[in-house]
Fold:
Amino acid sequence: MQPTRLSILGVGLLGGSIGMAVKAAGMPCHVVGYGHRKSTLDRALEVGAIDESATSSKAAVRGADLIILCTPVGLFEPLLAEIAGEIPDGCIVTDVGSTKRSVVKLGEKLIPKSAHFIGSHPMAGSEKRGVEFARADLFQGARCILTPTQSSPGKIVEQVEAFWQKLGMTTTRMSPDEHDRLVCDISHLPHAVAAALISMQHDDALPLAGKGFLDSTRIASGDGTLWRDILSDNADNLADSITRFRAQLDEVLKLLAPDKRDELAKWLEQAAARRGKLLAEKLRELAP
Structure:
């Protein structure tokens, strides 16, 4: 897809990076940004993430052929309701939300029939927040998951795929239900675990923390409001993930018995081997 007028609603890390990536890819596209803070929009203009700032979401989407929702998922419903009457015929609306079941339902419910909503989840980002951390190469080599439904026109899905691919991403399709179930295990649960790991520490232990602990808890530095919305929206899948994670911790407790040392080593070696295989696969994906 080659948009000529792109509207980014929420010019933070992801929204700003999309605007910068569009410019880096050489797309002749006019990028309009909307956000609640004038200082953020001014900074987005300074770094070249957007070409124009809009004073309202309605103004931002007028004339757009592609609209990308980049706010926290908890703001999608009022935002979609606000812009619905201004979305041009034939316009494609997508998003960067980390959950998809509720988002796709909202999009298909609130977007006019003369336009199209396709759910997207670019698996790229950082624990940092704000347009000042936006990067044109944020999406290079990363994966974007698209979640079309039976009512999604194939040609429109292909156009959204082509847009993310132009930003350097590989694309995968799955249903909104499958997305929320699988992404919960590899994204939502790890965030909750990182937050729990930092929360359970005694104050006198934290000064002893080294790089390994900092690596393990890095994602706990993410925006609390944004992650509250994600975890709450996917609460059923997260509850299942936590149950299975607890079962693994219960297994570790059993393996701490003096007569289980060999089994403990085997369990650790299996985990190391599985991560090694994953790392090798990811490196192959990133290879030029």
